[in-house]
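Technical appendix A lists one of the benchmark inputs used to test multi-chain prediction within the project. The record comprises two sequence entries:
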Amino acid sequence: MKADPRGVLTGTHFLDGDHACCEGALAAGARFAAGYPITPSTEVVERFAARVPTVGGCFIQMEDELAASITLQGAVWGGAKAFTVTSGPGFSLMMEHIGYAAMTETPCVFVDVQRGGPSTGLPTLPAQADMMQARWGSHGDYEIIALCPNSPQECFDLTVRAFNFAEEFRVPVMLMMDEVVGHMTEKVVIPPADKIEVVPRKRTQKSTDQYLPYATNGDMVPEIAHAGDGYKFHVTGLTHDERGYPNMTPQTQDKLVRRLQNKILTAVDRISLYEEEGTDNADVIVVSYGITSRVAQRAIDLARAQGLRVGKFRLITAWPFPEEHIRNLAAHTKAFVVPELNLGQMVHEVERAAGGKARTISVSHAGGSVHRPEDILKAIVEACR
Amino acid sequence: MNSILNPVESFLRTDRMPHIWCPGCGIGTTVNSFARALIESKIDLQSLALVSGIGCTGRVAGYVKLDSFHTTHGRGIPFATGLKLANPKLNVVVYSGDGDLSAIGGNHLIHAARRNIDLKVICVNNLIYAMTGGQTAPTTPDHAITSTSPYGAFEPAFNLPHLVEAAGAVYVARWTTFHVRQLARAISEAFQKKGFSFIEVISPCPTLYQRRNRLGDGLDTMKYYKEKSKIRHGAPTSEVGLTMTGEIVVGKFVDRDRPDYSALMHAQLEASLGDRYVDCDGACDGSACSEETVCS
């Protein structure tokens, strides 16, 4: 369906990434946010708090991130599209509820504007060191989707995508921003509402006696009901059967947890968003994401000016990881160079997917600033030798 | 077929019986009173949602035939807050235990009372953590033996009615599982209130609390509740703290009115934004909401 025009601020704007993310959420139909202030993410909910009463909806500032991350899920089951926004320390506190959303298949969005860590770290400075936490932070086996914008424009575009993926797969979706993308101001074009595709919630139309909340009927994603719809359904974070009832058997656990994984893993091709350029005949391919991809572009340009054959692969979807795509690239290149604002996280995925067919070189950075293009260039030059 | 049906049976997921609660446990008794309150107050069951945290009382959500949510430990209240704000037409009950609500969930308890969110909280207080084997809770009375206070508890306990009154609750009552009719009436009354209502139910855990403290079985506890309970409506909540074997002050302690969160939010936004304020009475854009809650 098309976006509700009341939430869409159509036009050409000069916005920072945090504000663009807020506009993306409103365009996607989010009418509920629960938040707790934390640098450098707070501007998202500050704008939402100002905007949503003029659109129709609700913002509540909760007492902590534990509360924010479950309040939004209550709102989802009450009929809203909902999200929360945080940064490292708050993201850590939200982990239990990311698992709850995965287990109960609550469609929702978590925005993490990454800053330097561990602990309080660098509140006002960038990092990309929550990438593994986004994937593995809650206990148990599950899959999520994580998207990495590299500009305010993408903060808008990918927030809409995040809500759409959340609804399509009934999964928590992470928008993995960083301090620089969140605070840089650039041109953001917001299209007319009728040009913005919004995925409606997969509401059940079944009769009350036929509806089983977690039955999938061949599709891997069950239909949802809201509180008040008349189904008198049960939702639990315990291992549950198709009725939603707790069932503590290895068989039920296996069936449920494998479906939670497979509904994402079998759709990797559809979920994977990326930007690829010049990878045919490349001796070296630079794999990057988020703000680092913009520094990497400078390094690629400098390397090409020296006559080196360098390809670019930008992860827009970080999770699920495009394993097969990287494996295919590995067969035709000498090396991957992977710059990221951490001491090596996604590089391990690249290395694993490459399976020894191509070398993998990490250009690590502990965070606090972006890379110097020269450092990435140096790695490219050495890899080409 | 047997045509005589227990009147509360239609409120239960009978396909989930038998339940997990121990013989002599009081939680089932509270559910019985809850169901009778639903009958008495003729509340629309379709618009009623029940939210639990984790623990023995947390399992109530799984046994009632309502839209029911078994959430994470301590987080029933914030989940219920989101549910209520997204769809204000829902009556939302939080049904959980003392450890869940006042220890791990203590921050949410006081802030929900402060905001005066329109929630009905039923707190079954068995004075310990029962699901995990009988550990000390913030409600454990002085000197009581628990699995983590093997020589006797010495941390001062929370007096829950006093806590939630101070934080802002508009309705505060306490009963025991001996007072089944009074409890049902209190729940009915809470449904009539707009705002944060809190009903504490003192309940036995014969398996882990009474046994370890040589307080007898479930029946002995009922006798204790009967003999030592004193009904004092309007008692100052500062005077209703519990001891291991002493008097239990029960009754309706607080019944007052102040605007709830939604009323305050609407008033403030209307005053500040005037015509620009879009009050859709909820949080929806039509792509997720049901017809009846879509803003017009």
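The CA atoms of residues 206 and 223 of chain B lie 13 Å apart. Residues 9-258 of chain B form a domain with the Rossmann fold fold (CATH 3.40.50.970). Comparable benchmark entries are summarised in Table A2.
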